[in-house]
Design goal:
Largest sheet: 3 strands, mixed
Order of helices and strands: HEHHEHHHEHHHHH
Strand content: under 5%
Helix content: over 70%
Structural class: mainly alpha
Oligomer: single chain
Strand order of the largest sheet: 2-1-3
Length: 311
């Protein structure tokens, strides 16, 4: 039995992504919707990167982090969306074993990095509002680069651990993933060996990342709120806190869906529910973030106007 299992495991060279189980008539509509969303993601995030790069008035730590956020919001949907669109046009819907590993690794890397970058952005707002005189020293260019680099290092570590644990599983003859990309819950679901350790690792690592970064964000905003409430004028309080509105919206959307997807026991139990949530954080949030940061941010809107007017 063991030798047969090993043989089947060694012969597994590809996975079949079952994707969205809908009526054939809806496949074209879904293709067009996802294509439109992906175009908005690419245009929106590249535009944000260009605006921040071109306008010298945005060359401050807050927008340095926002530019990196836009880069991440461009990268991790790009790991997923082209394959989703290709599978809509194909009857086989296959992804190679090595392609699945690569997709899984880079997706986990970019998503984890975004978790830590959002916490870094909260710390940046804390430093700017609570210690304005020391802000240039606390958030120097060298410090900013180190914080972003540290976020990527954490992303790489988490991705390596998850990829190593997940693809050490045996899948035997079953290679049909009830998902539209190679994700942990779907891969664990089709494994033919005991996955208890993998599920514990998934839960512990995801919960650790979400809880630690969330605590950093909550503590930062607790100090920010305390500082803002000490400002005597209502206009001053509103103006100071308005710089945090976009970040709070982005954090709420991103962390809410990631926690729902990975950091709760039993998250693997409902593949259909997981697919709906996965669409939200792999495609919808990266589409919304540039809109949130541009529509709610006067500096960005003014920079766009200056660029369009050639000033």
């Amino acid at each position: 039995m063991k030798s047969e299992m090993s043989r089947n495991y060694s012969e597994l060279t590809e996975f079949i992504l079952l994707g969205f189980r809908t009526a054939p008539g809806l496949q074209i509509l879904l293709f067009l919707v996802i294509l439109l969303i992906y175009i908005v993601i690419v245009v929106g995030n590249i535009s944000m990167i260009i605006v921040i790069k071109v306008d010298s008035r945005l060359h401050i730590p807050m927008y340095f982090f926002l530019r990196n956020l836009s880069y991440l919001d461009l990268c991790y949907p790009t790991v997923i969306a082209p394959k989703i669109l290709a599978n809509f046009l194909s009857n086989e819907k296959k992804i190679s074993y090595s392609g699945c590993i690569a997709q899984f690794f880079f997706f986990a890397l970019f998503v984890t990095t975004e978790c830590f970058l959002l916490a870094v952005m909260a710390f940046d707002r804390f430093s700017a509002i609570c210690s304005p005189l020391l802000y240039p020293m606390h958030m120097s260019q060298k410090v900013c680069v180190r914080l972003v680099t540290g976020s990527y290092i954490c992303g790489v570590i988490n991705s390596v651990v998850h990829t190593g644990f997940t693809f050490s599983l045996r899948f035997c003859e079953e290679n049909r993933l009830d998902h539209f990309f190679c994700d942990v819950p779907a891969l664990i679901e089709i494994s033919c060996v005991d996955t208890f350790v993998n599920e514990i690792v998934l839960f512990v690592l995801s919960a650790f990342i979400v809880i630690t970064t969330t605590m950093a964000i909550l503590i930062s905003y607790a100090y920010i709120l305390s500082t803002v409430l000490k400002i005597p004028s209502t206009q001053g309080r509103s103006k100071t806190f308005s710089t945090c509105g976009s970040h709070i919206a982005a954090v709420s959307l991103f962390y809410g869906t990631v926690f729902f997807m990975y950091a709760q026991p039993g998250a693997i139990a409902s593949p259909q529910q997981n697919k709906i949530v996965a669409v939200f954080y792999t495609l919808i949030i990266p589409m919304l973030n540039p809109l949130i940061y541009s529509l709610r941010n006067r500096d960005v809107k003014d920079a766009v106007k200056r660029i369009l007017c050639g000033k």
